[in-house]
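Morning. Coffee machine broken again, so started the prediction first thing and wrote up yesterday's gels while waiting. Chain of 375 residues, entered below exactly as on the submission form.
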Amino acid sequence: MARLLADRPADKLTIGDMARQLGHSHGAVRNASLTLVRRGEADQSGTGQPEFRANAKTAAAAQTAVISPPGTHAPRAQTTTPAAATPRQTGPIRRAGGQLYHPRALADLPDVEALNRLRDADVPVLLYGPPGTGKTSLVEAAFPDLLTVAGDGDTTVGDLIGEYTQADGGGYVFQYGPLVTAMTEGRALLIDDATLISPKVLAALYPAMDGRRQIQVKAHKGEIIKAEPGFYVVAGHNPGVHGAVLTEALSSRFSVQIQVGTDYDLALALKIDARVVRVARHLARQVDLGELGWAPQLRELLSYQKTEAVLGTNAALANLVGIAPLEDRDAVADAVIKAVGVKKIAPLTLGKQLPASAARKPPGSTVSAHRGRSR
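Came back before lunch.
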């Protein structure tokens, strides 16, 4: 992945572009791309169909594998501190990508501490809630040794366990996937958007989670992989996303299931416009009542704050309306109008064409003419 991007430094490549050139599945390419971005070794742009581009660190990353082979890291050390005496992490925690995570309460504990206790007790956790509420951020803050599988309908067993890839010498070598790496190194594994993955694919994960704590890699000589202490699985589920199905087989593997919603008090503490936070709260209540299907979550509120800083309040409000699903857009616009006091608001839209730059006077021309006359 890194080598492909480094060889084409001026190009922005989609996951589909890279999958076709490398001959790997979309899921495998997506995982590798996101890993490079998290490590700061590639840049990502776009949202609906993200594009990836090389940066100053990509060429160096091309010298080593993105997914480490099993045994690269020592297994996670087990805590010997009694649970009741575990220090509480209540302050902001810096995630691997540099962003700060603000812990929230969970069962009378900071959420990151609760997740670490569940990990030490080997109790798998399923986090569920709307996109943008901080499920992935929580897991990244709790487990610095985290590996992530970004699930979707194209995710294959090879994306979890591994697959054969062509070596530089022309032959083929087996590249272990994140599940095997997490098992052999005693690391945490997040299956993000797990309910978008085919149940047949997820079935490859289950033997690692039950009493056997091992899997068989049929594609690689039937090799048996055993989980080291510290190996832990946590999954994410977005119930409202099209195609997300929480099967009984998947649900039964996660003894603890935690609902994650947006902390609107945190949004206020982060200095997001109180009027917009109030709109989001109101819309969220309508979603809970089944009257709407969408409300801004923390991700959208943070994006609003950044957009406002760059383009101004009116543009940020228009964009907030524009990102709402079409069927909920009128209700979102009405809520914004009532909260902000404007007469009308519409999605952010391009306006009329600006005058050609050639028709404008260059900066300073007026001053020069004035000076000429004053003489």
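The longest strand covers residues 232-237. Going to sketch it on the whiteboard this afternoon.
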